Structures are given as C-alpha cells and as structure tokens.
Amino acid sequence: MGSAIIWVPAAIYLFATGQLWQGAFIVGFFVIVIGLVDNILRPLLVGKDTRMPDYLILIATLGGMEIYGINGFVIGPLIAALFIACWNLLSGREHAGNTDEIDEEFIEEAKNSRNE
Prior knowledge:
Helices cover 74% and strands 0% of the residues. The protein has 116 residues and is mainly alpha-helical. The chain folds into 2 domains: 45 residues; 48 residues, no CATH class. The longest helix has 26 residues. It is found in: Membrane.
C-alpha cells in the first residue's frame, strides 16, 4: 500500500477534474520512481533476506541518515541487521531448531575433553 494511499486519490482527482497531464505525471512519477526505489534499490542496498520488518528498516535508514548523512542510507540498516544477527546468535535463536543435526559423537568428545 505505502504511498499509494496518497497519490492514487490525487491522480483520480486530477483525472476527474480534467487535468490529464498532471494526473498522468503523478501516476508515471510514482510508479517509476517509487517502484524503482521499493522494488529494485531497497533489496540491493538493504538485502532481501534480512528478515527485518519494514518499520525497522525505515527507522534504521532515517536514523543512519541523521547520524551519517547520505551514507547513513546504507550504514543505518547495516548496523541494525548486524545487531539483529548478533542478538539472534548470542540468544541461541538462530540454531534452536537444529538440535537434531548435532552429531552425538561430537557431544561425547566434548564431554570427555572437558572431564580431562
């Protein structure tokens, strides 16, 4: 949905009032520019598989730009993604479902080496 909640009614109003060029410009601009940013640039800059909610990406991007300027567009979400990855790694959430893959022989070796 996003910004379409604003520009679609504006474009409909412009078309309804006979301002065809202005309505076409709004539709073209928002479809091309916003579509380009949302569907191409964001996955390239932030990453598709970050598993970060959109609101967190927005806050991290705005915060990064406030602190680091235009470079914060990339640095902010990067810091947020690193924080989430470290949090999941240290809290054990990342590997909680992989207990069936643990080699029993490896566990026995670890217990024996600790007892020595």
